[in-house]
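can u do me a favor
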């Protein structure tokens, strides 16, 4: 049996590792690997592979032999011409398509969902929004009965506190809504909670309009500071209710 050329070996190893990363993340961890992380991993993998493959002069020579042959060997003129024509064209096409502007209108001019700070203070504690999770979310799978009960309790919190502004159908059309600017958000709309993480909602509900960072100006929001009136648990439950009623799924970091 002929030995696989070293260059092909290197490419195969790199391709295999790449596929392994993607498969491991996708199938076993059920997460999409962030592109920047993948780039970083692959940088080290490629660097590592080339270190191993160029360890001795002998192996370096074997590795570059096919490239050298392609460039120098007179019998490969035809292939050489094809490669030298196709390669620049491929790069040109890639560059062209990646810089092509998209004519879609910007979704929102004012930042309705301002970037959250990475940590927030509420209930006299400091929360790390990157890791904060809804403590009740796990019951959706583990104990559906209990989860249903929690959603009902969240619904009660909503009815007695939030519907005046956000509406009894969660569509932002509560009786007070007309007089407010900015208007209370419509949670049915795919542009609101469907795009957000539960930790983001926790922050917004606990600290309300006054908790908004400066980029949310010029309007001042009437959204109350709920940490003054509700407990932490009540806030987490009302969040369960918002997603349950609207049928939206909270966003999670993995699918960003
Ligand atoms: C006095 C009216 C009012 C009440 C009552 C009120 N909100 Fe709001 N809420 C607003 C307004 C106005 C906004 C939009 C401006 C902003 O983002 O602060 C808003 C925004 C929000 C947001 C941000 C959503 C997003 O997509 O960024 C959440 C979450 C929210 N409210 C949840 C609640 C919950 C839960 C309650 C009840 C516990 C509640 N609100 C009660 C007026 C109100």
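np, heres the sequence
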């Amino acid at each position: 049996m002929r030995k696989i050329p070293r260059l092909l070996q290197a490419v195969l190893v790199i391709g295999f590792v790449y596929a392994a990363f993607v498969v491991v993340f996708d199938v076993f961890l059920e997460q999409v690997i962030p592109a920047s992380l993948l780039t970083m991993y692959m940088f080290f993998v490629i660097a590592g592979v080339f270190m191993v493959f160029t360890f001795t002069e002998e192996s370096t020579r074997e590795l570059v032999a096919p490239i050298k042959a392609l460039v120098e060997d007179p019998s490969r003129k035809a292939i050489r011409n094809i490669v030298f024509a196709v390669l620049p064209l491929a790069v040109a096409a890639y560059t062209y398509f990646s810089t092509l502007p998209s004519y879609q209108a910007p979704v929102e001019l004012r930042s309705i969902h301002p970037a959250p700070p990475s940590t927030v203070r509420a209930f006299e504690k400091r929360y790390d929004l990157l890791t904060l999770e809804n403590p009740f979310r796990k019951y959706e799978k583990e104990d559906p009965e209990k989860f249903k009960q929690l959603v009902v309790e969240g619904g009660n919190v909503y009815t007695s506190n939030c519907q005046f502004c956000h509406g009894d159908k969660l569509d932002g059309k509560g009786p007070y809504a007309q007089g407010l600017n900015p208007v209370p958000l419509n949670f049915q709309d795919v542009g609101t909670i469907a795009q957000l993480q539960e930790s983001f909602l926790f922050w917004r509900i606990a600290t309300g309009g006054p908790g908004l960072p400066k980029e949310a100006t010029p309007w001042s929001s009437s959204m109350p500071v709920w940490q003054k009136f509700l407990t932490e648990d009540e806030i987490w439950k009302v969040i369960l209710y918002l997603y349950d009623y609207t049928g939206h799924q909270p966003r999670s970091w993995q699918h960003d």
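The chain has a mean pLDDT of 86. hope that helps!!
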